[in-house]
Amino acid sequence: MTAWIALLAVTILFTLALRHGRPTEPPLPPGYDGERQLAALHALTTAAPNVRLP
Prior knowledge:
Blueprint: H1 2-20, H2 34-47
């Protein structure tokens, strides 16, 4: 019986370590549209590589 309790405790601790072990990402700013902004940035960098941005 003690072995089952120990196994359950180790399983729970391992699961909690996996959930909380990842670094949290900062929240995205309001109005952020990642796909659209990434496409616009890609268009700016590939269309005119020698143009200086203000």
